[in-house]
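PT: before anyone asks, these are the final sequences, not the draft ones from last week. 735 residues across everything. Please model them as a single complex and drop the result in this thread when it's through.
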Amino acid sequence: MSINLFLNGLPVSAEAGQTVLQVAKENNIKIPTLCYLFDKTTGLTHNPAACRVCMVEIKGRRNLAPACVTEVSEGMEILTNTQKARLARKTNLELLLSDHPKDCFVCEKSGKCELQKLSEDLGVDRLRYEGAMSKSNVPVVGTAYTRDDAKCVLCGRCVDACKQYQEIAVISATKRGFATTISGEFGLSSNEIACINCGQCVKVCPTGALLATNQTEAVFEALNDPEKYVVVHTAPSTRVSLGEEFGLPIGTNVQGKMVHALRLLGFKKIFDTNFGADLTIMEESNEFLDRVLKGTGKLPLMTSCCPGWVKYVEHYYPEFLDNLSSCKSPQGMQAALIKSYFAEKEGIDPKKIITVSIMPCIAKKFESARAELGKDGIPDNDISISVKELAVMIRKAGIQFNSLNDQTYDSLLGEGTGAADIFGNTGGVMEAVVRNAAFLIDKQETDVDIITLRGEAGITRSTLNIGGHQLKLAVASGLANAKLLLDAVKAGTESYDAIEIMACPGGCINGGGQPEHPVDVEYSDILKTRHATIRGIDKKKVHRISAQNSEIQALYKDYLKKPGSHKAHELLHTHFTKR
Amino acid sequence: MVKTNKEMFAELEAFIAEHNNDSAELIAILHQAQHIFGYLPKEVQEFIAERLKISAAKVYGVVTFYSFFTMKPKGEIVINVCLGTACFVRGADKILEKFETLLNLKNGETSADKKYTLTSLRCVGACGLAPVVQVNGKTFGNCTPASVDQILGQYK
Ligand code: SF4
Ligand code: SF4
Ligand code: FES
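LR: through. Structure below.
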């Protein structure tokens, strides 16, 4: 139902049920917000009306109203810009600031902090209120992310991200009043609670309270150590987001510039994790066909390339541990080969090699640290940093990213097919497996655009004919959806041959280590644009099936013999444990 | 008879089962758990979270929100000094101070030998007797710093 009302004296129309905030936005008025969060793609809505920085005046009402939760009504007269409203918003913000450490100079979030931006927008020009600080400014460090309670403004966005995206709810408001703290049980770090390190909470935090645990200095240190041979590899979805950190349009493909920047940073070899992704597909499609045709393992086969999802199964669905593909993730495979195949070929002592991965993800930090993914206590992948951390390094080194010309990856482990590129989108791994499995059975390239699997939101179910076999496949985006799917499989109401799950809604392009944007940029637009770029890259590739990757062919010929061989198992497969 | 840990967990388990492992009953279950164990240690909170299929963070959130719940074990003798308005204006702070000195405990602490717990509360509804002290549920009215010695004398 359409209704008529007044916004700052001018007549506007709106739909019943819309909030003042939404109507104002549609009419080009941005009302400041802090605690409010809305994501169209998944329907995530977080509106506790806690921060009160969105107050507006409504004629006839005695009190100011929070725009984020106040619904419009017929004839309503909204005033967003009165002295009273502006002063109230500013005062509320100043009160929040009174219990916030004012150490922007040394805060990693500086420049991207919503609180900082608000003070600027609302014209906070001095700190009027001084009082006791409710929490000490001592970070609680986890492998994937770090929590600094003193910087928390209690907006609760992280709690709802965990609850609504992932249905995990492993963090919560604890204690009360002035002492209120957002944390896991007993104030523990992310390593000690049943958190899967997806970083969705980090991504929505407006301040520096939640940040990926920064490892950039460790990378610089390795690069400066003449004894070390530092190799880097970059995940599929990093190339479509890194440019955003340098002001390029969302979703710009900056693969060539990224490679160039890494070379300028001093990495000895720049490899593409896309190679590892193609290899994962080779091993996983082989495993899949074996399980389906020879009954060598449990069905449905579940993908295991997402470390958030893997840890989720370990914590919450241990009954499905044997369903997980035993394949290491692309990061895991790439890193294992750098310290074996590559090291042997080049005659480098693997102990001297430091492998760094650039990831869209912060759960990859945790994966790198898994004891089973290394040899003799030396991890295969030494350091995993996020796209955002790489941007920090590029800035620190003074590299003028946007003016760099394109360079290409180093060979041996640097080639990737379109099947690897699509790993970045939910549904991509499944599509890549299907492409490869069909190719292996039919011995020829058939249709590679498997549109029915492109489930970038929700759950996608599909039955496909692969080499004469009817196979039932499902893809779930985000763990809230995964839970629905797993429960249906558990209850026996649905059955599948293979399931792909990515913990982050939409896939790696929406990972916890990806660049953030101001709140007024719609999440759904960011994701759609990055998805589309990935699709475009795949479409333009000459080879779009993993088995066509010539470096992969060489690897099998010279080193691994064939997918699933003894050597492949030793290097490329792993196991999982109940937590 | 002091119950063993195993017996206490069994009792809690039965209570949770009676409530159909329903997470909406969390507060009632926490009450009962505190009744059984005397306080709500980590293990108990984790046990409840697991049985109710909710995160331990949620349980911990509720436990730390309500001041009734405590994660610290209580002593044999629990001394509650009322700091409600009526008691306060009649010198309850002096009484608390006296307890603190005599027991060498701060408000909210329990002695190392688990004998005494000293806490305060807000108004027990006996303002006519202000200032009021409760020891293990028994009420002492019109207290003075001098009567603190006397009260403690009864609980050696
Ligand atoms: S990292 Fe993911 S699982 Fe862990 S608290 Fe954050 S949102 Fe929840
Ligand atoms: S940690 Fe960040 S997202 Fe979570 S409540 Fe605090 S400020 Fe908000
Ligand atoms: S944005 Fe409206 S109260 Fe926080």
